[in-house]
Design goal:
By secondary structure, the protein is an alpha/beta fold. Helix content is 52%, strand content 11%. It binds zinc ion (ZN).
Length: 486
Amino acid sequence: MGAETVRPLPSRLAGCFAAMVVGLVLIAGFAPAASANEKGAAQQLQRLKDEPSKLRNFLRQMPKGTDLHTHLSGSVYAESMIKWGAADGKCVDPVTYVSSFPPCTGDQVPLANALLDTTLFDNIVEAWSMRGFLPGEESGHDHFFATFDLFGGAFSGRTPYGLAEETNRAGRQNVQYTEPLITPQFGHTLQIANQVGYNPDFGELRESLLNAGLLEAIPAASAQATTALTGQQQILDCDGENRQPGCDVEVGFDVQVLRNQQPVVAFAQLLFGFELMKADPNWVGMNMVQPEDASLSITYYRLHMQMIKFLKGFYPEGNVTLHAGELVPGLTPPEDLRFHIRQAVNVAGAQRIGHGADLKWEKNPQGLLDDIVEKKVCLEINLSSNAQILELKGKAHPIRDYVKNGVRVTLSTDDEGVSRTDLTNQYGIAVRQHGYGYRRLKEFAQEGLRCSFLPSSEKQKLLNRQNKLFSQFEAKFKPKVRKPRK
Ligand SMILES: [Zn+2]
């Protein structure tokens, strides 16, 4: 199940095969249709790159494969959360904009009030997202991460609706597959972890957690996934007459492990995640989340990498992607910028890295790039999120280093609801800020599916479908052939 072991058609082989086909076709005296159409699409993108609305339309229709880095709650727009929270009788504090369960106490008001009060509605949207945000006393980093604690109460219980929104948006943008990140059964894991207590002997700690009943919540975590998927299908009317685009988007869940926690809690979540992936194919991967610079995240970063390395010995089939290097100077001391990506790749053995933004501040960046290429590690690049949280964009962004060095790169949204963006816009930024053309964008889309944590047979099906979607898309840009004069 490892990303590097299931790549269906190695690019070298594909290149040789393509060269043979081109050679044979040229001998026969005509160019291959797919290649000509791809060229037509590339030319079209060049023509449209300075026309924002036409470029947007082109990129929206382009098959984009997948969004591999999308936190489910962060993918939902604040407007939806207000609507659902209002319907569920939830409350909001009109000063802090923290949402909560009823009954509303103290200064709290019903969230439903926001539907009739424009000022309250606008203030909540701006507190729960990056809409209208200008860095000042509060940084983009702080405002972005604070949103999750504010809208958490309103979103609670609405996972199927969140999944319906996320997949439907993906479907409308010609995305075939997403890997939403969800935290399964944190309350249970926390309770068992606190009951057992930390032991630096990971083998003993694993045994103690298992004996204390850590896995009793596996059925509930499975139900969380099936309930979300079943609900999403109903909400999108997938068996009915009003079938929505999200019905065609396949889903594999990634386990979110909260990293800004005491070591025993982090270890218990990692162990639970590996066991969950083993028990339930709906959970395809695992990731560590929460700000990488937060106190416990940064204090125990090396220890977390050791924990994953240890557990991978027990669960070699478990897929791991890690937020690593979501940092810039100033956010942490320079010493902490020197090893996060390297440890995620070389110690934890992550198959994918999310962000990798602090590449140039790592010790020996070129050596690290060489390791990443050699290990076939994939990079999930989140351009909007990096601009908002890290103020990292344009030429300063390391996407160029990764691409130039032959790293496997795909584009993702991170938190499209919080960022007020979508996957199409990530491709647009790649064109506008980085000058990438059609073939590079197509490579991002194809690499995304190859890097997904789906089992190889399912992945191959999606890759075959993606090829067809590209053929259909590119056929619209068939170069015009002049009729010979009589
Ligand atoms: Zn993320």
